[in-house]
Fold this protein.
Amino acid sequence: MAARRWYVYKILVDGSLAYIGKGCGKRAAVSAKRLRGTPEIIRTYAREWAALRLEKRLIAELSPPLNKTSGGEGKSKKSRAPSEGAIQRGWAQAALARHRPIGSVAALIADAYLAAA
């Protein structure tokens, strides 16, 4: 079983939800210190794209006041699945031309988007 390296976290400031984010390592603690709040891990994942998906959904549902975007933009360089923004801007097509693992999530997403365009 793969290690659950990625997580989605929330930061509470004075007991109220202030921020939702995705991270690994000490990301939640660093963010909480910067915001002077308390971090809580919501869920852990083996894959970054799964954490990004939950982060985006929770931000849309809960609208934390310190989140400046709808989430999902903070993807690491190691992630394989392209963000929705990358697909919309056409970057996925060039990336998949260079690296196309058969059956990958990135390939399925890009194929569906390109077929609809």
Q: What stands out?
A: The two ends are 37 Å apart (CA to CA). Strands lie at 6-13, 16-23, 38-45. The helical segments are 27-35, 48-62, 84-88, 91-98, 105-116. DSSP finds five helices and three strands in the chain.
